[in-house]
Amino acid sequence: MFTLLKTDSQTAARRGRMALAHGEVETPTFMPVGTKGTVKSVHPQELIDPALDCRIILGNTYHLNLRPGTEVLDEFGGLHNFMQWERPILTDSGGYQVFSLSKLRKITEEGVRFQSHIDGSPLSLTPESVLEIQRSIGSDICMILDECPPYPCERDYAANSLALTQRWAERARDWVESHRPPGQHYFGIVQGGCYADLREKAAKDLVDLDFDGYAIGGLSVGEPVPEMLKAADVAAPILPVNKPRYAMGLGQPDQLLELISRGIDMFDCVLPTRVARNGTAYTADGTINIKNAKWEKSQELLAPTGETHPLCDGFTRGYLRHLIKNDEILGLRLLTLHNLTFYLHLMKQVRHAIDGGTFADFKVDFISRYRGEKVDA
Question: What class is the 11-269 domain?
Answer without folding.
Answer: alpha beta
